[in-house]
């Protein structure tokens, strides 16, 4: 019986160490070995090697290939015996040593779908080509290539387990002793954060979030804020949750809540935690109560800062009486008023404030007159029924008013200005028709009590200016409401007429200016 084995020897040309052993023959003193390397089917092309050994073993270096071997013994006289029958054997190529990717490595990538990967292995001595096979565990990827170089670059899908194999061969058909096998995992890009929708109202029925690509499940945590301990407490945990909506338990008490969502995916790193805080109404959260609250949205302001802007367009009617100059003037002119304001409502009280400045103007006989006003009000609001709300305003104001004085003899006129200050009182009633549509009725009183300036320097005579109107409102977004309607405004001021030789006035006379306008009122309100 003959046995043999091989091991690597680093030499050039490439050879491998071959070892033979056989059963010793009785009375044999030496052995002859004949090896023929067969590179083709023609026997005459075979290369023959002969070796003599004294023991029943032989070792030597052979290049990979196909060989035929014969063996005979010699006795103590040197007489040879018969040659054994030829036996065939192959000296194979080494098994490839895989270098990259490493064994069972998990490789992170920044790609969503696929990435380029270069496979590398150590060159195999005597190999003329390599046979490369790549397969994914899910069977969707299978790549087979015959290569000349000990590397291969290919684009492969991410988020998958892979097995790759490399074997070698030469041009005579000699193959490697075994196939080198490696396994690795290619991770995908971390999945995106889900976007949690904030509930539109504090009547929370369900929680919703977006579903990023490649998500397989979620971990969802529901927390409630403990106002006594001032910390978040975990109420419920849903692991490996499959849906992108979560019903909110109607039996949970009102208060401040937070939902935390982690999106997960197979073979893709999980997304960071997504968080959304929201408030839940205490008490009755029935559908009827929700509908009432929903309808009121058209008139409710978002708590906190807000801004207002309006423009009033009208044909103004002016009337002025000035006994000092023996003047009585009346005319009509096209004009308007622009208003800007900023206000604030406290979150948990009915109190707030509103400050407004406006500028009015009109053109008559080619001349444009402008006059300003400003007011600062405390505001108190109170609900009236299910759909109504009344808002009271009170505070100081400053107002200017033009005065036109005509000369009855020359027909010329002179434009002057009066300014005063005093208290303002206002009331507004808002009523909601639908969650977006509402109506408003308003009334405002302005008392001119304190002189700021008069043309002749005389004191003011108390007068009242008024404004009445109504508006229809439409809530375009939770932070923007538009209104349009009608306003009737009468601005009036008077001051004592000066008597003397250059005056036509008598004791007790007053100079007075009045402007009456029926306005088209366009109004807008923004919440910050």
UniProtKB/TrEMBL annotation:
Domain Fibronectin type-III, residue spans: 190-283
Organism the protein comes from: Bdellovibrio bacteriovorus str. Tiberius
Name of the protein this chain belongs to: Fibronectin type-III domain-containing protein
PROSITE patterns registered for this protein in UniProt: FN3
Highest taxon of the lineage: Bacteria
InterPro entries: FN3_dom, FN3_sf, Ig-like_fold
């Amino acid at each position: 019986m003959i046995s043999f084995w091989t091991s690597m020897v680093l030499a050039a040309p490439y050879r491998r160490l071959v070892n033979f052993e056989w059963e010793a023959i009785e009375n044999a003193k030496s052995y002859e070995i004949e090896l023929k390397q067969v590179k083709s089917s023609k026997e005459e092309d075979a290369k023959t090697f002969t070796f003599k050994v004294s023991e029943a073993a032989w070792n030597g270096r052979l290049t990979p290939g196909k060989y035929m071997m014969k063996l005979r013994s010699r006795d103590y006289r040197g007489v040879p015996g018969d040659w054994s029958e030829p036996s065939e054997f192959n000296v194979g190529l080494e098994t490839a040593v895989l270098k990259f990717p490493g064994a069972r490595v998990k490789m992170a990538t920044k790609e969503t779908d696929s990435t380029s990967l270069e496979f590398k292995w150590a060159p195999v001595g005597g190999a003329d080509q390599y046979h490369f096979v790549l397969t994914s565990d899910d069977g969707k990827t299978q790549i087979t290539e015959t290569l000349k170089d000990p590397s291969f670059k290919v684009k492969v899908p991410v988020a998958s387990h892979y097995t790759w194999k490399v074997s070698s061969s030469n041009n005579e058909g000699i193959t490697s002793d075994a196939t080198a096998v490696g396994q690795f995992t290619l991770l995908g890009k971390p999945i995106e954060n889900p976007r949690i929708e904030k509930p539109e109202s504090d009547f929370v029925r369900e929680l919703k979030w977006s579903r990023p690509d490649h998500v397989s499940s979620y971990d969802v945590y529901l927390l409630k804020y403990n106002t006594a301990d001032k910390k978040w407490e975990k109420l419920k945990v849903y692991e490996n949750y499959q849906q992108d909506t979560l019903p909110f338990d109607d039996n949970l008490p009102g208060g401040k809540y937070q939902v935390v969502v982690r999106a997960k995916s197979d073979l893709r790193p999980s997304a960071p935690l997504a968080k959304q805080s929201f408030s839940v109404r205490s008490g009755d959260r029935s559908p009827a109560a929700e509908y009432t609250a929903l309808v009121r949205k058209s008139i409710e302001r978002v708590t906190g800062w807000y801004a207002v802007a309006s423009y009033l367009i009208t044909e103004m009617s002016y009337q002025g009486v000035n006994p000092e100059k023996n003047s009585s003037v009346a005319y009509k002119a096209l004009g308007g008023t622009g208003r800007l304001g900023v206000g604030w409502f406290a979150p948990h009280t009915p109190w707030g404030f509103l400050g407004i400045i406006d500028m009015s103007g009109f053109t008559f006989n080619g001349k444009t007159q402008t006059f300003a006003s400003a007011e600062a009000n405390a505001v108190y609001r109170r609900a009236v029924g299910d759909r109504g709300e009344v808002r009271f305003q009170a505070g100081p104001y400053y107002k200017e008013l033009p005065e036109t004085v005509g000369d009855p003899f020359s027909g010329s006129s002179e434009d002057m200005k009066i300014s005063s200050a005093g208290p303002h009182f206002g009331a507004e009633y808002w009523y909601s028709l639908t969650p977006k549509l509402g109506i408003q009725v308003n009334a405002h009183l302005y008392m001119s009590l304190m002189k700021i300036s008069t043309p002749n320097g005389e004191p003011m005579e108390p007068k009242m200016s008024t404004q009445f109107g109504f508006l229809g409102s439409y809530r375009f977004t939770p932070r923007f409401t538009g209104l349009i309607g009608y306003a009737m405004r009468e601005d009036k001021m008077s001051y004592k007429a000066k008597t003397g030789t250059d005056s036509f006035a008598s004791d007790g006379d007053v100079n007075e200016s009045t402007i009456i306008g029926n306005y088209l009122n366009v109004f807008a309100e923004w919440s910050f």
